[in-house]
């Protein structure tokens, strides 16, 4: 049984990675429906929380059906991160996660996210202060290092464990790689095999199929797998992986009805959480992913991304349903 503090996650948990503009409550809802074991909020700016910025505080919204769930924070100032952890704790998540992995310029160039991989003493001090500021388990998500010359994840894992983190998720790339090239899980395995390490180690990077999940589980010995980009428009990946790990059978992909149903649920929750205007607008980025690979979909996609009201979107979805049911007949 894999545990973070008192949170039981099963024998081999599959986690949803925190992704900016993706892993919000509407998306988390459809992932939870498909069996994900642990989810995180989008990453939240510590400075934004302290200033009570609307965008940051809205990201604190969590719902009972999402549990267990962690709130993920990022920032460059130790005092701000400490205060933000106190604010996040009041929102009653199951754990607090610190982002030391985000590679994008807007974050890393301000000294947050993966930038802390260049200053391990500061990372350790920041983590220590967050751990002391909350009664909740604190976890960390990070990368192998800043670049090929500084792959210091083994040292990082030991030092962070020593000051009290209770799980570590590792993306198998350096910051310099961004999302290019292949994720290297050998160093993740090295962390897991380190006799000093006793906290759960979750691997992240390039797992996009049940077969890849099983291969990485067996080959690298991690305690669980975190799925990010492969889940976008594909929440079924969680149930597919879990089924394959349990039975060795490949589940059939989602039917057309399932695609439409999940997309509609995601849209319903988007309207509920964001309101009619933002709910319609922000859902546009997801349609292509839900209906990826379908023939003759271009016109429907255009109709979906140009619809301005919920009623128009529902109408287009109904037409999609009718069209593909006719094709099936």
Structural class designation: alpha/beta
Biggest sheet features: 9 strands, parallel
Number of E-state strands:
11
CATH architecture of the largest domain: Alpha-Beta Barrel
Order of helices and strands: EEEHEEHHEHEHHEHEHEHEHHHHHH
Cα-atom radius of gyration: 20 Å
- The shape is globular
Question: What is the CATH class of the largest domain?
Answer: Alpha Beta
CATH superfamily of the largest domain: Aldolase class I
Catalogue the unreliable spans. Answer: none
Explain what you see.
The strands form two sheets. Strands 3, 4, 5, 6, 7, 8, 9, 10 and 11 form a nine-stranded parallel β-sheet that branches. The chain has a two-stranded antiparallel ribbon with strand order 1-2. The N and C termini lie far apart (46 Å). 45% of the residues lie in helices and 12% in strands. Strand 6 (69-74), helix 4 and strand 7 form a beta-alpha-beta unit. It has helices spanning 25-33, 46-50, 54-58, 78-90, 105-108, 120-133, 153-162, 186-193, 210-220, 237-247, 256-274, 276-283, 287-290, 298-306, 310-328; strands at residues 3-4, 7-8, 14-16, 39-40, 44-45, 69-74, 95-100, 138-143, 168-171, 201-204, 224-227. The protein has two domains: 3-247, Alpha-Beta Barrel (TIM Barrel), CATH 3.20.20; 256-328, Non-ribosomal Peptide Synthetase Peptidyl Carrier Protein, Chain A, CATH 1.10.1200. The chain is an alpha/beta fold.
List the helices and strands and how they pair.
Blueprint: E1 3-4, E2 7-8, E3 14-16, H1 25-33, E4 39-40, E5 44-45, H2 46-50, H3 54-58, E6 69-74, H4 78-90, E7 95-100, H5 105-108, H6 120-133, E8 138-143, H7 153-162, E9 168-171, H8 186-193, E10 201-204, H9 210-220, E11 224-227, H10 237-247, H11 256-274, H12 276-283, H13 287-290, H14 298-306, H15 310-328
Parallel strand pairs: 3-11, 4-6, 5-6, 6-7, 7-8, 8-9, 9-10, 10-11
Antiparallel strand pairs: 1-2
């Amino acid at each position: 049984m894999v545990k973070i503090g008192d949170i039981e996650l099963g024998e081999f948990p599959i986690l949803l990675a925190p992704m900016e503009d993706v892993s919000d409550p509407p998306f988390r809802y459809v992932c939870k429906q498909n069996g994900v074991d642990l989810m995180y909020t989008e990453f939240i700016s510590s400075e934004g929380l302290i200033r009570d910025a609307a965008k940051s505080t809205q990201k604190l919204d969590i719902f009972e059906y999402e549990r267990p769930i962690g709130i993920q924070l990022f920032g460059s100032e130790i005092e701000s991160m400490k205060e933000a952890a106190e604010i996040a704790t009041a929102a009653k998540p199951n754990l607090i996660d610190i982002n030391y992995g985000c590679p994008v310029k807007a974050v890393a160039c301000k000294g947050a996210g993966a930038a802390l991989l260049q200053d391990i003493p500061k990372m350790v001090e920041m983590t220590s202060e967050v751990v002391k500021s909350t009664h909740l388990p604190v976890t960390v998500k990070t990368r192998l290092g800043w670049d090929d010359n500084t792959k210091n994840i083994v040292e990082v894992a030991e030092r962070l464990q020593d000051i009290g983190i209770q799980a570590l998720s590792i993306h198998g790339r350096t910051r310099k790689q961004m999302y290019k090239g292949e994720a290297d899980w050998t160093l993740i395995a090295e962390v897991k095999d380190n006799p000093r390490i006793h906290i759960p180690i979750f691997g992240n990077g390039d797992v996009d199929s049940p077969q890849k999940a099983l291969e990485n589980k067996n080959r690298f010995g991690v305690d669980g797998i975190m799925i990010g980009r492969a889940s976008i428009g594909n929440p079924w990946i969680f149930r597919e992986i879990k089924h394959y790990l349990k039975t060795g059978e490949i589940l059939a992909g989602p039917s057309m009805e399932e695609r439409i149903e999940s997309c509609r649920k995601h849209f319903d929750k988007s309207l509920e959480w964001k309101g009619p205007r933002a709910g319609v607008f922000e859902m546009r980025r997801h349609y292509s992913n839900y209906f990826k690979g379908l023939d003759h979909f271009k016109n429907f996609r255009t109709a979906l991304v140009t619809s301005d009201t919920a009623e128009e979107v529902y109408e287009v979805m109904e037409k999609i349903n009718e069209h593909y049911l006719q094709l099936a007949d």
